[in-house]
Amino acid sequence: MEENKNHIDDMQRLAEEGWKQMHETLRQHGLTSDAVAPASKKRTIFLLLAACVLFFLIFSSPYIVNHNSFFSSNKKINASNLLSTKPVTKTITDNSSSSVENNELPALTFQQKKQIHQKINNAFLASQNEYWSRSFRNEKKYLLQKFSMEKAYQTTIPKCDGMIDSTVNIEKTIPSEKKPANAFSKKIKFFAGAGVNISSGDKSAHSFNFKDFNIHPSVTVIIPLNQKLSLHTGLSAFSTIHGKEVSASDKELVNNLSSNVYYNIKTTSIIKGSYFDLPVTLHYSINKNWSVGSGLQLSRLYKVNIKEVKESFDYNNTLYSASVAQYNASPMGARAAFQKRVEIKKMEPRFIAETSLQQGHFLFSAGYYYSLDKSIILKDNYNSRHQYRNEYFKLGVQYRICRSK
């Protein structure tokens, strides 16, 4: 045990000696931190001092340049002359001559610098005031010469050749004023009111009957195109036309011997038709209020009025009984009532020739309407075709809405 312990101690001593020898070798070659540490500290301190000096020079150089450049020796300005208000006599001495030769100037205090700066500012302000006052005086003189009312103008009145005759009447002439041209208004006008259709009555009448008419609502829109032309359009609802009666008769024999009726005759007729109308007309203005125009109207059939008359006759051809029924039906219902022997146009175009008069806020109109196509075509029992056309007059009165202020 003791030998092992001694052996371990010997190994430790050898290791310590080896480390010390290696450390000494590194120190001699300057590779250890002990040798470098003092040098690096000195270098760091030196760099810090150099940086402080550099920053001081950088920040103090503008102040030094601004305050010493004006009083430098290259300017050769005697500062004592600026402070004194009286002329200074130069005394040349040995000492002064030596200072002049060396281009040296006496140092100035801060108070002296402030006084010099104030004098320079005062001189500048005085020169500015003198300049502006001189400019204002010149401008005033120029304006007075230009707009002066004291200029004398010499006027001479020519001599009259003869005496003035006071008995001559002098007529006063008034210059004719040109009437301003009528300004073209592009405003669209809206009118609302009612219309009245006047058409022919039964088939025996050959003229228009004032008893057969209806009153229906209507709207008119007037769109001006230029000073003379305007476009009229609008809408009429439930515009009813009383036409010549479109009739078809059917005869029916009665086989019942106990009845006094020998045969029946059923007559189906179309009395009138109601339409929705959409007119478009071009109007020419004769004067400010009166215009005439023409155009087309597209009409759509809404309903028809049907009348059915049933007459019964006995064996002596004497009327035994009669009944009348009248009702409204659609175009398809009317076709069924005539057992598909009638054709009614649902849409038809019509020619329009009308005139209108604007009086205040009212619009009065009158027009003639003529269907361009056959309105109703009917086939009788002998397969003959009967054609009917819508034709009527229309009067209307409307009031202007949406008036401009």
Q: What topology emerges from the helices and strands here?
A:
Layout (H helix, E strand, L loop, with lengths): L1 H27 L4 H36 L10 H5 L10 H8 L8 H38 L41 E12 L7 E17 L4 E25 L9 E23 L4 E24 L5 E11 L1 H7 L4 E3 L2 E13 L2 E10 L4 E4 L5 E4 L2 E11 L4
Antiparallel strand pairs: 1-2, 1-12, 2-3, 3-4, 4-5, 5-6, 5-8, 7-10, 8-9, 9-12, 10-11
Structure characterization notes:
With 405 residues, the chain is α+β, with helices and mostly antiparallel strands. Among the domains are: 2-68; 189-401, Porin. The protein is built from 6 helices and 12 strands. The protein has helices spanning 2-28, 33-68, 79-83, 94-101, 110-147, 331-337, and strands at residues 189-200, 208-224, 229-253, 263-285, 290-313, 319-329, 342-344, 347-359, 362-371, 376-379, 385-388, 391-401. Strand 2 (208-224) and strand 3 (229-253) form a beta hairpin. The longest helix has 38 residues, at 110-147. It starts with a helix and ends with a strand. Residues 69-101 and 202-206 have low confidence and may be disordered.
Summarize the structure.
Among the domains are: 2-68; 189-401, Porin (Beta Barrel), CATH 2.40.160.
Just name the CATH architecture of the domain at 189-401.
Beta Barrel
Q: Report Rg.
A: 63 Å
Continuous helix count: 6
The backbone outline, from C-alpha atoms, is flat
CATH class of the domain at 189-401: Mainly Beta
Summed over residues and divided by their number, the pLDDT gives a mean of: 76
Please count the beta strands (DSSP E, at least 2 residues each).
12
User: Could you please say which CATH topology of the domain at 189-401 applies here?
Assistant: Porin
